[in-house]
Amino acid sequence: MVVTSQCSGHRVTGLYVGASNVRRYFPRSVKAIELQLDHLRIECGLTAHFWQDKPEIHDPRLCLWLESKQRSGSGLREPAPLSMIPSGKNSFTLGPVSLEGAKEVA
């Protein structure tokens, strides 16, 4: 699935998953997911709002990782597409979008 980073000025604030991805990949019973970020594996909690009106993931470690991947000369960040691939039960690998994934965003 293709997701995007969320940015506010010079900071990355989270990951926008999108309502259709939430319905397809996340059962309501799930309270947390594991994300593989390069060599780092973290657990991110999901709030009730995740399934309602805010299909977003917020975690300080995730934000730091996203910021390290989105360095820019101007200091301002823009939302960037990322690939979030299921890798087990409630587990996903986050990484750059492939060329096929980039077509889905466009």
Description of the molecule:
Helices cover 23% and strands 39% of the residues. The protein contains three helices and seven strands. The protein starts with a strand and ends with a helix. The chain is an alpha+beta fold and 106 residues long. Strands 4-3-7-6-1-2-5 form a seven-stranded mixed sheet, sandwiched between helices. The radius of gyration is 13 Å and the shape is globular.
Quick structural gist:
By secondary structure, this protein is α+β, with helices and mostly antiparallel strands. The chain has helices spanning 19-25, 60-69, 99-105, and strands at residues 2-8, 11-16, 32-37, 40-45, 56-57, 81-88, 91-96. It has a 7-stranded mixed beta sheet with strand order 4-3-7-6-1-2-5, sandwiched between helices.
The gross shape turns out to be globular
Adjacency order of strands in the biggest sheet: 4-3-7-6-1-2-5
Radius of gyration: 13 Å
Count of runs of 4 or more consecutive helical residues? 3
Which structural class fits the helix and strand makeup?
alpha+beta
Q: How confident is the prediction overall: mean pLDDT?
A: 86
Pattern of helices and strands: EEHEEEHEEH
- Biggest sheet character: 7 strands, mixed
Q: Which runs of at least 5 residues are low in confidence (pLDDT < 50)?
A: 101-106
What proportion strand? 35-45%
Helix content percent band? 10-25%
Number of strands: 7
Distance between the termini: 14 Å
State the oligomer: single chain
